C-alpha cells in the first residue's frame, strides 16, 4: 500500500517514468538517423545518376559507323574511330591478367593452406593489403623506373606488367578468402585417402573454391580495364594500329580518353565520350558476370 501511494502522485501529475523518456529519446534518435541516411542515399543516387545520364547522352552522340572500324584520327582530322585503342586495351589487359592470375592464385593458396599462423604469411598479407590500396600512379612510376627507362622507350610489356601488379593483390585476397571458406572436413577426407597436401589442394580445395577464384579474377579484370595513370608512364598512346612487337607507345582506351577529352577538337572530344561509355559498359558487364558466377555457385 505504501509503495502504491508513493507512485500515485507521479502518475497523476502526468510525469512519465524514466523508462518512457529513454524509449522516447531512442525513437527520436532512430528517426533522425534514418532521415539522415535516406538523404545521404538520395544525394549519392542523384549525383551518380547525373554522371551516368551525362555519360550516356554524350557517349551516344559520339558513336558513329566507323567508331569500331577505324583508328583514332590525327589532330584536326574528321571522322576516325577508336578501333586501335580498343584492340590495344584488350592486349594490355590480357597481358596483365595472364601474368597476375597464376601469381595471385599461388600466393593466395600459400596464405590459406601453408602459411596459417606463420610470421611470413602475416608479412605477405600485410604487404598485399598495402599494395591493394596503393595509388596506381605510384605503380606506374615504379614500372617506369624498372622497365621503361632501362629499355629506352614506352612499351606494351611495361603497361602489361603495371596492370598485373595492380591486379595481383585483388586475386590474392579473393583466393585466400575463398579457400578459407572451404570446410576442413574436405581436406581431412582427402588426407584420409592418402593424398598428399598438394593433391588435396589441386583436386579438392581449388575445385570447391573455383567459382570464388574465378570471380576474383573477373573483379581484377574489371579493376585494371579502366586504369589510366599507370599506362601514362608505361604504354603511353599513339594513333597507329597495334604492333605485334609491343615496343613503343601502344594505343589504349584509358589514355586515349584522357588525351582526347582535354583536346580542343570537337571530334576528339566526341570520341573520348564514346570511349568512356564503351569502357563503362564493359566494366559493368564484367561486374554482372562476377555476380552471376557467385549466384550460380550459391544456388548449387
Automatic annotation (TrEMBL):
**Cross-referenced Pfam families:** BPD_transp_1
Q: Which family does it belong to?
A: Belongs to the binding-protein-dependent transport system permease family. CysTW subfamily.
Where is the segment annotated Disordered? 1-25
What membrane topology term does the record carry?
Multi-pass membrane protein
User: Where does the chain cross the membrane?
Assistant: 33-57, 82-105, 126-148, 154-172, 271-294
Q: Which UniProt keywords apply?
A: Cell membrane, Membrane, Phosphate transport, Transmembrane, Transmembrane helix, Transport
Subcellular location(s) per record: Cell inner membrane; Cell membrane
Organism placement in taxonomy: Bacteria, Pseudomonadati, Pseudomonadota, Alphaproteobacteria, Hyphomicrobiales
Q: Name one GO biological process term.
A: phosphate ion transmembrane transport
Query: Would you name any one GO CC term?
Result: plasma membrane
ABC transmembrane type-1 domain segment(s): 86-290
Q: Name one GO molecular function term.
A: phosphate transmembrane transporter activity
**SUPFAM superfamilies of this UniProt entry?**
MetI-like
Instruction: Tell me the superkingdom of the source.
Output: Bacteria
**What InterPro entries does UniProt report for this protein, alphabetically?**
MetI-like, MetI-like_sf, Phosphate_PstA, Phosphate_transprt_permease
Q: Which NCBIfam families does the UniProt record give?
A: 3a0107s02c (TIGR00974)
Query: Which ranges are annotated Polar residues under compositional bias?
Result: 1-11
Q: Does the keyword Transport apply?
A: yes
Protein name as annotated: Phosphate transport system permease protein PstA
Amino acid at each position: 500500500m505504501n509503495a502504491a501511494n508513493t507512485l500515485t502522485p507521479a502518475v497523476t501529475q502526468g510525469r512519465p517514468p524514466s523508462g518512457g523518456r529513454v524509449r522516447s529519446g531512442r525513437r527520436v534518435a532512430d528517426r533522425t538517423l534514418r532521415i539522415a541516411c535516406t538523404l545521404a542515399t538520395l544525394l549519392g543516387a542523384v549525383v551518380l545518376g547525373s554522371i551516368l545520364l551525362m555519360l550516356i547522352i554524350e557517349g551516344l552522340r559520339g558513336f558513329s559507323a566507323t567508331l569500331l572500324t577505324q583508328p583514332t584520327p590525327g589532330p584536326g582530322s574528321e571522322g576516325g574511330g577508336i578501333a586501335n585503342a580498343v584492340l590495344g586495351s584488350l592486349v594490355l589487359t590480357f597481358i596483365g591478367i595472364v601474368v597476375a592470375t597464376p601469381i595471385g592464385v599461388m600466393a593466395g593458396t600459400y596464405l590459406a593452406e601453408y602459411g596459417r599462423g606463420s610470421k611470413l604469411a602475416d608479412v605477405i598479407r600485410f604487404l598485399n593489403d598495402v599494395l591493394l590500396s596503393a595509388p596506381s600512379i605510384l605503380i606506374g612510376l615504379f614500372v617506369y623506373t624498372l622497365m621503361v627507362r632501362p629499355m629506352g622507350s614506352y612499351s606494351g610489356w611495361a603497361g602489361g606488367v603495371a596492370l598485373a601488379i595492380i591486379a595481383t593483390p585483388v586475386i590474392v585476397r579473393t583466393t585466400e578468402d575463398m579457400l578459407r571458406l572451404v570446410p576442413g572436413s574436405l581436406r581431412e577426407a582427402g588426407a584420409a585417402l592418402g593424398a598428399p597436401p598438394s593433391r588435396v589442394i589441386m583436386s579438392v580445395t581449388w575445385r570447391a573454391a573455383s567459382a570464388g577464384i574465378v570471380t576474383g579474377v573477373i573483379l581484377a579484370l574489371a579493376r585494371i580495364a579502366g586504369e589510366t595513370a599507370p599506362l601514362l608512364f608505361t604504354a603511353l598512346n599513339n594513333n597507329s594500329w597495334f604492333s605485334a612487337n609491343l615496343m613503343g607507345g601502344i594505343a589504349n582506351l584509358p589514355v586515349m580518353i584522357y588525351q582526347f577529352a582535354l583536346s580542343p577538337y570537337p571530334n576528339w572530344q566526341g570520341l573520348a565520350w564514346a570511349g568512356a561509355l564503351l569502357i563503362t559498359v564493359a566494366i559493368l558487364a564484367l561486374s554482372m558476370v562476377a555476380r552471376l558466377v557467385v549466384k550460380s555457385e550459391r544456388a548449387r
